[in-house]
Amino acid sequence: MDTIRVQTTINGEAVEFLCEGHETLLTALRDRVGLTGTKEGCATGDCGACSVIMSERLVPSCLVLAPEAEGRTITTIEGIANGSGLHPLQQAFLTHSALQCGVCTPGFIVAGKALLDANPNPTETEVRYWLAGNLCRCTGYDKIIRAVLDAADHMRRSQA
Amino acid sequence: MSERSYTQVGTRPVRHDGLDKVTGRANYGADFSLPGMLHGALVRSPYAHARILSIDTSAAASMPGVKAVVTGKDIAETSAKLMMGEGAIDLHDVGDNLLAHGKVLYHGHPVAAVAATSLDLAREAASRIKVEYERLAPVESVDQAIAPGAPILDDKLVTAGQPSSAPKGPTNIAGRMELRRGDLDRGFADADLIVEREFRTAATHQGYIEPHACVARHGQDGQVVVWCSTQGPFAVRDACAGILGIDASRIKVIPSEIGGGFGGKISVYLEPVAIVLSRKSGRPVKMVMTREEVFRATGPTSATKILMKLGAKRDGTLVAASASLWYEAGAYRGSPSGAGAMCCFACYNIPNFFIEAYDVLVNKPKVAAYRAPGSPMVSFAVESLLDEISRTLGFDPIEIRLKNAVKEGDRAPYGPAYGPIGFRQVLEAAQAHPHWHAELGPNEGRGLACGFWFNAGMNSSATVMLNSDGSAGVITGNPDIGGTRVAQALMVAEELGIPVERVRPTVADTDVAGYTDVTGGSRVCYATGAAVIEAARDVREQLRARAAKIWNVPVEKVGWKDGQAVPQDGAGDQKPLSVVDIAAKLSHTGGPVIGRASVNLPMAGPAFGLHICDLQVDKETGQSKVLRYTAIQDVGKAVHPSFVEGQMQGGAAQGIGWALNEEYIFNRDGVMENPGFLDYRMPVASDLPMIDTVLVEVPNPLHPYGVRGVGEVPIVPPLAAVANAMRDATGIRYTELPLSPPRVLEGLAQSD
User: Element (H or E) spanning B632, and its range?
Assistant: First the structure.
């Protein structure tokens, strides 16, 4: 089969990979680039476990074709932490015990970052609707919502 | 049990595996790969019920890149049985469920498998396998299964347990059991009020976000290694060994991180097939299910039909109860109808009762354990009827439950007398909770319901190692599905008097960990926790002996206080030795210190929960929204309260989904029509409010700290709590779940 060469930027670094035309960005990230932090829960765009930020837009990477990554900038869960320090969302998920099995956590943190990038001061309802595309089966969402609100608060205060 | 205070237990440290899980580093089932690895794909039945006439694999096998093709013939039928989870597993059925032998019993039943150099190629090859079927009429419900002349799934099936009549010819009833007490007729004759209804619940899936996945490598020397996502690495090992006739010592199962299970990742679906594909091809084989495969061929729990009758005196005392429980088993025997029977009336003292529970085969996927298996459905029935009785007799719902609630010394419906239990304290906590007294708005209703679960004990092992700097490691064999590593580290820290951050908890593979039963049955913190505490105490005793050596006194002269060895009984005035002090001298006092323990514990002593739900109903659309929710539970002792709350919140959310929206929808041919997260509607963040929790702590005397197990109880009350709230909001007693908008509208239309 014909392979396609894709040049893109992932987590701030130039990355080049070969893929097939029908391959999803999710598969390419996991199997071609080796970034397995992005998870497959459904492959139909319904669970949010594969959330990444592509050129400032939150997308389920299972619904993006890998060649569409050409020339874009992509942020995955592996690129959320800043060097040796955790992102406030990651820290808040830890201190709030906002994960149980943890498989949905990368998607929630990526989606949460996209939310806080767009709206640094969300209400609880706004957080709940923004994250409605991410399924968690373990927590009942309570501690996740608290963690996101707490991280937003922390980020606002540290910028003030 | 004496009241004791804790320095570590009851605190909320960050979990040790947390960093890996918030940074994407943690490896789950599908994240593992090996050089030279092949990819497996399954051929699944397009029919719900059919006889396999022939399988032609030649076109697939001859494709370049296809390295192995297997069918049912490659996995011989076995008669082995395996004690596992909460009962014995018939490995014949598990094996036949992996790859059908002769007949396919549900839509999606695997019939063949392929391993090839890429997943695309494996799927292409699978599509070229030609299977000829003779289609048979499917059985899609309990009513169809027991109707005269119903198609029979298994000609050789004999009803196990207590059949209602002597066996006469083929049946779809795989099992029947009875529980009884007192004189039922007299009990109902004494009742001032009798309520009787038929309830139905739909099949629901565990809904773990991570699909099943494994990699298997069968070496030319016969040694097998399996990497997989499972609740029970030893259960996988022993199931593979039994089904494939391989010595358990030749199979090593390495558990990955696990992306949810809820009972659904105990049985094997892929692992033995991957092993056989690897044996045939000589290369490692990876198999990962799609979400559609997960829905069609794993999980779900039983759909049920429950006929229940309760009799009460005018003063609210329950005097008689009867129940007929019909649970769909799916394609093979093994529904949790028996557990349903035992849980049915477990919350209340009822002097006269009769319960019969049926396990019924239908052409649907073989049911798997799902969080408190069997209990939520009976709770829906009994708690709905109790709501009706309290309304008719004019009682407060908590008051009538307090009047009948079981307490220590009362006999459980399934036999033994209860030890110390916290049901009354839970009811009193509900009475005192502001939620119970809050105002409701228009179109809003409030419901309350209780629930019961046993909580398993079983086998667990633990090893605790002391390092020379005074830090420690703890090894167990339970995959960490919700914070058990940090709970185990807390226990070691508590026993040794060192900070929890200095304890490294590890989930080990089956070659390294001592035998440990599954992460399930709410048993890890209780049973494995007890093993961890015992192993840590083993370390402590060895440290006392080392201190005695350092002080040159007999060991009896060394006490242990606040994490330090202290002189006692006239041993002198030596300065106390901390764990760090003694650890620094290990090499000079006898070498490494390793503590170990294995336990075989009885059931934990049951737990009770109570949930309060406020529901707002849109009477034009039938749509409802949970406005406020409170979960109260006797947890024994909360080792890490955040994760205990998390279990309660998560269980409540799953139960709310079961009550409001989740259901398997089958067409007339027995094909599931909603095998994806868009149409199988689990709760999302915008569906739910915060879920308030109240942790009642009545210590369980079987555990050193009083741990009782928490994970399963919280899925039991929500079905009736939601339905009772719906009754309060609409005036309608719904008896069939889910309460999806179309069903709610139908009820509203009928009541007009």
Answer: strand B624-634
